[in-house]
């Protein structure tokens, strides 16, 4: 008998689902998969519920409800000084996941090279490989997540179609600096290619400002910017994403969106439009609250002998397990952590190309987007098994 697609057949179930299932089976606190354990803003939930009773139940327009596209354009202006045409430069998608996939579909021809920065989010490589692209991975290295200029330069070639940049970055929490963005922009121009910018954590930064690559000179026509309502409004189940790009790119991205999802839930789109207009004070409150929880959790981990790496943005902090590993790698350590301590985390080696060089095996990622009570309970549980003297 003929067989289904071999590449997809061989793809393992995502580590986030695996660890969430393991956490459930063992009654563990789930600091693995990145989702908040509190509700999003009441005004958004109410707006979504009301829209369901208000005739918002048929297909939305292909590129998104006008009110959401207008809100995305306004937010681009307010937050970053970008002048965006809501009619031709915004596309609403079913989550950033779809936005990434359709943007890649729109850019890539088989054989094109794509520069990526490891550790990387787990949907990038499978989509690239399905499209026949050739990944060129560069690593930011622990403990400071430094971006090596020589390696980045060497990853670009005449065949490079795009660089995929995730800032703020999952899992490292790195927020790329203005100097790093300028370097990337200069390489994009030098090699006449594009930049696909996964900016889902744009509003979740702590003490540093997120700068979209699109705001750097020459990038307005070459960068595709992706946002996620799930992350910006703490409603990860909603799966509403938005793409901002120049019209020559959105024209092609819209074709990919047309054959993959066509449109996304209209009531949620209406609510997200309201959310984007909440503006700066809402996002400041959200990031201040997350920052306090990052500090609480990172300090607790340090006290237990798990040094943490710098994390200026996102839901995540990476910890070094070396002092407590006793010969175990990050995968074995995370499994034992669920079963023995009742806390779930994600092994960082899962964020590296399985076909690439050996990844680091001494790092694990914790999601701190949980209530203080839950984080404190997780630290208590860890404290019963680990002490700083160990190792
Ligand atoms: N990119 C990154 C870096 C992420 O962490 C996530 C998390 N879910 C996504 C994209 C996908 O976002 P969405 O849930 O909106 O599809
Ligand atoms: N982005 C989330 C994380 O990194 C997971 C999303 C998913 O489970 N697909 O934890």
UniProtKB/TrEMBL annotation:
Membrane-spanning ranges: none
GO MF terms, alphabetically ordered: transaminase activity
The keyword 4Fe-4S belongs to this UniProt entry's keyword annotation: no
Cofactor requirements of the protein: pyridoxal 5'-phosphate
Superkingdom of the source species: Bacteria
Coiled coil among keywords: no
Keywords tagged on the record: Aminotransferase, Pyridoxal phosphate, Transferase
Name of a matching Pfam family: Aminotran_1_2
Residue ranges of domain Aminotransferase class I/classII large in the record: 29-382
UniProt name for this protein: Aminotransferase
Species this chain originates from: Asaia siamensis
